[in-house]
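In keeping with the milestone schedule agreed at the kick-off meeting, the structural modelling team has produced records for the first pair of proteins. Each record is given below as a sequence line and a structure-token line. The laboratory manager (R.T.) confirmed that both were archived under the project's standard naming scheme.
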Amino acid sequence: MTTTKAILAVSFGTSFEDTRKLTIDAIEADFAAAFPDCRVYRAWTSKMIIKKIAGRNGIRIPTVREAMEQMLSDGITDVIVQPTHVINGIENDLMKEDALAYRNDFSSIIFGNPLLTTEEDSDEVIRAVAAEFSYLKEKDALILMGHGTTHYANSIYAALDYKFKDLGYPNIFLGTVEAYPSMESLRRQLKAFAPKRLVLAPFMIVAGDHARHDMAGDDPESWYAQFKKEGYSVDCVLKGLGEYPRIRALFCRHIADAAEHAEA
């Protein structure tokens, strides 16, 4: 069957093959299974990671513009661009610019939402995380490490941290590596909660560089090392959000919603 419809799965990317297979590859496989009438293409937004993989493995991952060119030459006419980004931040804005440079070359280019866009998204992500860590005891605290950004969309992290508590999960805390809520905010909250054990997990699609080094690394500046130094019992779970079936299902729902709105 020849199809002229495609889904372009846009990810930041990762240089770690093991987590890529479990996250980005799994997300794209779910897209292909859920939308059999569409061809699934890949693009990454991190030029640094693309360059690293090309040099190390000899594999060329396309940028958004390169993927758009490829789809054009393959005879694709209608594209749904689905980012695997967590928030509507800088990467997402740039991705849209790159894709829309081709708006006159395709019959339609529509965009699915990043993971956290609506209140319903937040609720579903909270449920997915709570289900994933349902084994936690009452005085265990789950510390999620988000990336954080200078973009105004960063406010979603503080809102989600609050919403975890509001929906009945007082032992789940969300911080970021590069913005607010910071490590200092987490320290203050944990002091008040007084947990017996901490479980650290990435709040990122892949368990890549930040998860392995900034979160779980041996460096004295890592969250793991800092919390250990403060006397906490600490475990790390190196599992990206892309490994959670409910998170992948939410991305599929975003594609379906985008297609539905385009037809309306």
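The second protein of the pair:
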Amino acid sequence: MRKLLFAAAVLLFLPLHLQGQSASFRYGTDFDYFFENREFDAIRNTYYGQDGLLPVESCTFNSLVLTPSIGLSMPQSPTVRHRLTLGIDIRRDMGSGAVSRKTLDELVVYYDARAKLGDGSSFKAVLGTFPARFREGEYGTAFFSRNTLFNDRNMDGLLLKYRTPRFYGELGADWIGMKTQTGRERFMIVSAGNWKPLDWLDAGWSGTFYHYASSETVHGVVDNNLVGLYVRANFAQRTGLQELSLKLSGLFTYQWDRKFEPSQSFPMGFESMAVVRKWNVYLSNCSYVGDNLQYLYSHTDAGGFQYGSALYFGDPFYQCPFWDKVELGWEPRISDLISLKIDFQFHFSDGGFLGWMQHLGFSFNLDKKRL
């Protein structure tokens, strides 16, 4: 904590010496609240395949995170800008008792640059430990569950972003784990993009390429790569609705436990998403049909530890040969700084009703559009 306070003092003091270079002091504050209640008692009697029961249980998540930050911003030219930022994640899990020192030590330290290239195009880059919300790609719950996005808030690495009026693409690297006595070496390459040839039609891709390697005591490497290709039509302009869309996706994986499997596996599936939205209220239906995209979930490594959520970051429902989710929600337009979402999800498989969730998410972001 003393190191953080010292660094903050340096950032506060530097602008006094950089006025001649047009450097300016910046500050920001993010606040996120996450509540989700899961009711899945009936799932205990629903099998998803040969490996056992679906790993979803009834529980409640109730947490908040405050991220104050300070930094310097320096324009290089009218079209190029540089920024250094230092912040800290302060997390509180409701009902957990006293705040621990570890809770206060999630540092956010990064450099970012932005360049306007003309014709409405731009290039942005960020390097360091920075909020994962800087990713703008549509990764979906097959890639990252809602719970994962709240708990794993930052990327450690690099993110590059390129945008034109009808195209967006991003490429990033996230160093998730360093090799230690018990910790596995883990890193992930992420990529996503979207092309909008017509006002009502767009297509794109999402990909995560995950390398789950050895620790100093447990040896073995697992590859878990997932690519999604999609096309979407939105007929809202012809109907007077905010949204009337249908998104069709193909999900393709490359997976290999190099120590215990003789060869690679390629599970794949198909997903559809239909959304109707009016007055900021929406009703959506997501259906998945295909292979078990997380077939190694209940397997164990050479040390006897289950891979589980350390290998897979998406919703566990993609272990089902068929899964359907009906969601009813409300996302009111409050301001550019504040977002609110309330929703109810109902989950079904080929075995019938699985359970349901109730969710409340609130976010306040003082500098929401800086990247």
